[in-house]
Amino acid sequence: MIIQAIVNGLLFGAVYATIGIGFSLVWGVMNIINVAHGSFIMVGAYLSYTLYAVAGVDPFLSIPVVMAVLFGIAYVIQKYALNRVVRGSVFITLTFTFGLQILIANICLLIWSADYRSVKLPYSSAGFQIGGVVIPLVRLGIFAVALILTGLFYLFMRRTKTGIAINATALNFEGAKTVGIDVYNIYAVTFGVSAALAGAAGCLISPIMSVNPFVGGPLVGKAFVIAILGGLGSTMGALVGGMVLGLVETVGTVFIPSSYQELLGFSVLVLVLVFRPQGLLGKRFYE
Amino acid sequence: MSEVILSGRQVSKTFGALKAVWNVDFEVKRGEILGIIGPNGAGKTTLLSMINGTLSLTRGTITFKDQVISGLQPFRIAEQGISRTFQIVKPFPGMTLLENVSIGALFGKDKIRDAREAREKTRAILSTVNLSGQEDVAVENLNISERKRLELARALAMDPELLLLDEVMAGLNTTEINWIMDLIRKLNEKEGRTILVIEHVMKAIMGISHRIMVLHHGQKIAEGPPEQISNDENVISAYLGERYAKRRGASGQG
Amino acid sequence: MKTKAIVLGILAALCIAAPFLLTGFWVRLITFTFMFAVLASALNIIAGFTGYAAFGNMVFFGLGAYTTAVLMTRLGFSFPPALACSAAVAVAVAIILGMLLLRLKGHYFALGTLGAAEAVKYIVENMTRITGGGQGITVPPLRGNPAVINTFFYFMMFGLLIIIIIVVWRLSKNRLGYAFKAIRANEEAAGVMGIDTTRYKITAWALSALFTGITGSVYAYWFTYIDAPTVFDVMWVVKMFVILLIGGAGTIWGPVIGAFILETISELVWSRFINLHLGILGLIIILVVLFMPRGIISLVSQGKGIKDLIPIRRKTRGDDR
Predict the structure, then answer these.
(1) What are the residue boundaries of the structural domains of chain B, listed by start?
(2) Which of B100, C27, C149, C306 has an alpha carbon 20 to 30 Å from B193's alpha carbon atom?
(3) What's the order of all strands across the beta sheet hosting B18-29?
(4) Number of other CB atoms surrounding residue C283 within 10 Å
(5) Are residues B111 and C196 in contact, defined by beta-carbon separation less than 8 angstroms?
(6) What is the tally of structural domains in chain A?
(7) Per-state percent for chain A, helix, strand, coil, to nearest 5
(8) What's the gap in Å between the CA of C62 and the closest CA on chain A?
(9) CATH 3.40.190.10: does it fit domain B4-81+160-250?
(10) How far apart are CA A85 and CA C317, in angstroms?
């Protein structure tokens, strides 16, 4: 029972990692808490659902398309709107992304209605067993793809010119400008990458979770917990944070009645914030 | 002028492996002006920050009027009667000059309760630093000389027994420097305040200090009256290099 | 100054006469607006003046509502003592949470308070024996003629609004307010100048919680039915922030003006485009943040016109984190 819970937690933890990385990226680079991150995930899930319902495209295959679409949308939002307030106070940026989130939720409501949507894959019950532990193929696939995405992101940030520019901008805004980096464009790219990852995560969860226009809130709540647990500015941290959250949730159901689970989550969050705000792996942040 | 008002024993501050200040013992007598000099990076501002509580000590103790103040929060130390100016002036944005300085009167040593009374006291201080006409100016619009005087006014509004001045003359021209020197003397002689001054303008600090303490690489290398310091071989060596110091000594110049 | 006094006097007179001249619908609408003005003003104290964006402030609203509801239904309290208890609970919780959370800055504080608020909401929801859990509580209503009841609550909210405006007005001039403003302007420098920042931050939050909790209490008595998802809903705080944005944070009248503008727009939209309600609110938020982040009051006081609304990118002044 517990082993199954642990396995489930780890498998899903990888998706959490993907969610956390994008959110943590925007926070770490631009000091913006993107409340709309959850709605990006939601849009990704909706697009995946639509591609499947209309054209039969498997969610795993629609990932590149969805990532591209979300990158585009987010890039435009950052370039023409968010960039104006990105150096502002918490108050302003947080409220802005909140407004964005409810706007997106309403748009999704209009397009897809309030009904729950999910992707029912023909092979959803396929899987295999190892010593009494069931591992569905779908979850294994999700796990694998999420890990690949995390790895690709890591390489992107370390090995590509753009990734290095993003790091430079995050560490020293003025310095980056001095060496010729178009920082506002970098911000737009960062936001785009973050949304792309969110969109991919949306595709990944569409076969196992049903989505409605209001899942954005809870999703970004999870992203926030993952980012805090893992510490900002650390890909490994987001991975660890995602796994921890996945484990806490699944193993938690075994021991604690479900009504207290969320409370556990929030209590952990508050405790981490108060006693170790740099998370498990992060550095003491910008304050 | 013989009672010791501030003393430090083995005062040290390290940042990881860096010894910013190391094993400094010092004493400041009530009513004197103690100048602190030393090349850049000597640890002067770090020492000041430990006295007013902005930085914690890694080792050692600082005592003010027989009470240990090292380890106290900055606001408690301010209440005891110590105030300071910052090298890089940090006024409160979005507030006027008068409001900025009033904060010192309201929350400094005297903790004036009535906002109106604080404003009146503030006006008196503004006239001391020659900023009387500018009460309602937003602090963002002040020039460098006015900002330096604002810093001084804020520290004075707290009615300190011990005033810590951190490079209050940096960026000023000769006339302004002379004016501040006179002001410091007045604060010391007429109002009886004990003053610690960090300065790079040698002529000024040698001119107003009763005693000078020299820091180099975080340690005290000399202490004494200004004339003695300006001839001290260690001091000259620290600023100008060993060879120059030896040359001066050898040719008998003093 | 005299013109201002006359204008205020006329407005006050209109407000006092209103419930006797307008229909129930309008009276309730204006009462609701007063309520938002109070809530936003309360948030203004901790966020606008002191600079701590408490995104979890609705926790005090919820606690105030539940305290009153529970005391009136389970223990048979009448409204006045229930109100007093609600106020006490809100202040107590603010002090406790403040000691834990006010050491955090910026985003961490904002979201820490949100997390704490969610935690409290879950606790309240799960104390089923006391709070009725998911079913909520029905408060014994005030009995009487509907018009009289409307008028009663109208004046309760109006009274609260007057009181909080006076408090905020005093804060803009007195020593306590100076401490708050200094903390917001530069917390480190404030400490060096003798301000016990921890104590003052907690005071600001407790004051904010006091008014928020009392409002929650009145809300429970007015609406007679409350449940956790409604009274602890984060949308309350979002609206409070939007009101502060529209009207101008850190000002006395900003929250009032903002509340009236937002409620007017809400009413217009709600009655015609119900399923666009959220979207339009979102759009308003985005537009206000982009074009008038300092609110209407700052535009007026600086004599700006419409064309000054286009912001220049890369302002250097906005760099407070």
Answers:
(1) 4-81+160-250, 91-159
(2) B100
(3) B18-29, B4-15, B59-64, B67-68
(4) 16
(5) no
(6) 1
(7) 75, 5, 20
(8) 17
(9) no
(10) 12
- B-chain CB neighbours of C196 within 8 Å are 73, 75
Please list every residue in chain A whose beta carbon sits closer than 8 Å to the beta carbon of residue C249: 91
Q: Which residues of A touch C59 (CB under 8 A)?
A: none
Name beta bridge partners: B28: B6
A183 assigned to some structural domain: yes
Task: Establish if C307 belongs to a structural domain.
Answer: no
Interface test with B, best of C192, C203, C320, C321 (most B CBs within 10 A): C192
pLDDT in tens, A118-137: 888 887 777 888 777 888 88
pLDDT digits (tens), chain C, 321 positions: 688 889 888 888 888 888 888 888 889 999 999 999 999 999 999 999 999 989 899 999 999 999 999 999 888 888 999 999 999 999 999 999 999 898 888 778 888 898 889 889 888 888 877 777 777 888 888 888 888 888 899 999 999 999 999 999 999 988 999 999 999 999 989 999 999 999 999 999 999 999 999 999 999 999 989 988 899 988 899 889 889 988 988 899 999 999 999 998 888 877 777 778 788 888 888 888 888 877 777 766 655 444 444 444 333 344 433
B102 shares contact with chain C (CB less than 8 Å): yes
- Do the chains contact at B75 and C178, CB–CB below 8 Å? no
Which residues have a Cβ under 8 Å from the Cβ of B35 and sit 6 or more positions away? B197, B198, B199, B205, B206, B208, B209, B211, B212, B213, B226
Residues of C in contact with B53 (CB under 8 A): 192
3-state secondary structure string, A73-94?
HHHHHHHHHHHHHCCCCHHHHH
Task: Please indicate, yes or no, if residue C242 is contained in any of the structural domains.
Answer: no
Give residue A50's domain range.
18-213
Q: Could you tell me the two tokens for C263? A: 């409620």
Q: Which chain B residues are Cβ-neighbours of C182 within 8 angstroms? A: 92, 95, 103
Q: Do C116 and A266 touch (CB under 8 A)?
A: yes
The answer as to whether A86 is a domain residue is yes
Residue C110 covered by a domain: yes
In angstroms, the separation between the Cα of residue C259 and the nearest Cα of chain B is 25
Cβ atoms of residues C94 and C229 within 8 Å: no
Q: Can chain A be said to touch chain B, i.e. do they have 3 or more Cβ pairs within 8 angstroms?
A: no
Q: Give the side-chain half-sphere CA count within 13 A for C159.
A: 9
Kindly state whether B179 is in contact with chain C, defined as any CB-CB distance less than 8 angstroms: no
- Closest by CA position to A38, among listed A16, A6, A53: A16
Among candidates C173, C189, C191 on the partner chain, residue whose Cβ is nearest the Cβ of B92: C189
C301 touches chain B (CB under 8 A): no
Q: Could you identify the residue written with the tokens 């024993």?
A: B9
Q: Which amino acid is at C257?
A: I
In a domain, C224, yes or no: yes
Whether A273 is in a domain gets the answer no
Q: Does C195 touch chain B (CB under 8 A)?
A: yes
